[in-house]
Amino acid sequence: MWLKSAGSNSGYGDYKDGWEIPGGKLEPGETPEACIVREIREELATEIKAEKILGVVDYDYPNFHLIMYCILCTIVSGELKLLEHEAAKWVTKETLRSVDWLPADQLILDKIEEIL
Predict the structure, then answer these.
(1) If residue 74 lies in a helix (H) or strand (E), which one and from where to where?
(2) What is the rounded CA–CA span in Å between residue 8 and residue 108?
């Protein structure tokens, strides 16, 4: 599984050095599936196919509210290249819990472990 650092300008405050699942904000009229395809293209220069929604996380950070659709995807073409964030890395089922995940992302880890 691929993940990225939250970065210093993400609005996460104290969590800015944590790790999160790649994604982004929905544009008006956009489905969660279309959003993840667009965001991965923009952030990682890769074409993906959104396969299925694994779950939805509803979380209150100190400065904002987050609703996160976690979607299982497959790579259609390209190789993941970091274009917009400070760092990224791969994790396996064995190393999934060794990462300093952002609080909202921690809530979906059980579902991710089931499919890895």
Answers:
(1) strand 65-77
(2) 23
How far apart are alpha carbons 4 and 78 in whole angstroms? 18
Which tokens belong to 52?
């299925």
Q: Rounded to whole angstroms, what are the CA distances from 31 to 26, 53, 60?
A: 7, 11, 22
* Cα 65 to Cα 103: distance, rounded to the nearest angstrom: 12
Residue range 39-81, pLDDT digits in tens = 999 888 899 999 999 999 999 998 889 999 999 999 999 887 7
**Contact assessment for residue 38 and residue 49, using Cβ atoms and an 8 Å cutoff:** no
Could you give the domains of the chain?
A: 2-108 (3.90.79.10)
Q: What are the distances in angstroms from CA 7 to CA 14, 39, 52? A: 11, 16, 27
